Amino acid sequence: MDFLSLFVMDFVKQLQSPTLSFLIGGMVIAALGSELQIPESICKIIVFMLLTKIGLTGGIAIRNSNLTEMVLPVLFSVALGILIVFIARYTLAKLPKVKTVDAIATGGLFGAVSGSTMAAALTLLEEQNIQYEAWAGALYPFMDIPALVTAIVIANIYLKKKKHSAADEYLSKQEYLEKQPVAAGDYPDQQDYPSTRQEYLSKQQSADNRVKIWPIVEESLRGPALSAMLLGLALGLFTRPESVYKSFYDPAFRGLLSILMLVMGMEAWSRIGELRKVAQWYVVYSLVAPLLHGFIAFGLGMIAHYATGFSLGGVVVLSVIAASSSDISGPPTLRAGIPSANPSAYIGASTAIGTPVAIGLAIPLFLGLAQAIGGS
């Protein structure tokens, strides 16, 4: 009973934290019809500074730490990014009125990482004086890139199989027609009709359309979110940025994060309308998936905790990035990699519901769970 009461008290306390309060405040003023707007250029600068700060923190920590401690969390991050896509492929895609390619894209976005959600989690850990590895933020790309690559590859494989099935059906019809008596002129040019599956496919695939993985990785790395964080990581690892870090990036971090949370709250409310365009199952998935992914990550994190001494704060970070869904680099990557997928489905599910669930529910939930385990 003491365990449950402490857990609930911590949960409520964290919901009242400045970070989560600004997110809720943004949703409230948007619901009330406020015309408040934060210019997109300012949001981009804020995101750049937040992720650069996280990268600097990770780079400085990696430079001063034992790299072997990172191996298991890194492997778990990669595995989680891939697993989350397959979960969507074999759960969401099987539900009524859900298109498979849209479900795969949704899984890719939920498998990728939200830098702002991770920043919110790191802030709350510091507010609660919970220790975590400073390099934990560097797990971001190890989950983000595999998720996006996996989603695009699986979607393209699915679309090709679908295309090949259509080819088989077409050839079956042609074989049937060829056995039927035809009048002169019905088929003026028999060379226009393929006689074999291989011939049909060779005509349909005039260019090599194999799924190329490296362009996907390259596009992800060049995205604004990962670029900013990897830049900070490299600077922290190979230079000595401690002075500018302590005088500028660290003090400004929480204030900038509060503004970003306000913007995300307003955007989340505005995106709710997009979900009306797609199956209602996306709402169910968006409510359940972040917590499911987070619990899987929490279990893997506890394995790393007992096996290598990975801190409970690090377990929370791993759980939160698994529960998050990409809100910056993921959408444009998926738009380019899976152009046939419906953005209203995967972006609406992520921004309108997935992100508020990850920030407002998953962060305090896993933080409270870690505190309960640590205090037991």
TrEMBL record:
<feature type="transmembrane region" description="Helical">
    <location>
        <begin position="20"/>
        <end position="38"/>
    </location>
</feature>
<dbReference type="InterPro" id="IPR010293">
    <property type="entry name" value="Sbt_1"/>
</dbReference>
<protein>
    <submittedName>
        <fullName>Sodium-dependent bicarbonate transport family permease</fullName>
    </submittedName>
</protein>
<keyword id="KW-1133">Transmembrane helix</keyword>
<keyword id="KW-0472">Membrane</keyword>
<feature type="transmembrane region" description="Helical">
    <location>
        <begin position="104"/>
        <end position="125"/>
    </location>
</feature>
<feature type="transmembrane region" description="Helical">
    <location>
        <begin position="70"/>
        <end position="92"/>
    </location>
</feature>
<feature type="transmembrane region" description="Helical">
    <location>
        <begin position="137"/>
        <end position="159"/>
    </location>
</feature>
<feature type="transmembrane region" description="Helical">
    <location>
        <begin position="45"/>
        <end position="64"/>
    </location>
</feature>
<feature type="transmembrane region" description="Helical">
    <location>
        <begin position="345"/>
        <end position="367"/>
    </location>
</feature>
<keyword id="KW-0812">Transmembrane</keyword>
<feature type="transmembrane region" description="Helical">
    <location>
        <begin position="281"/>
        <end position="300"/>
    </location>
</feature>
<dbReference type="Pfam" id="PF05982">
    <property type="entry name" value="Sbt_1"/>
</dbReference>
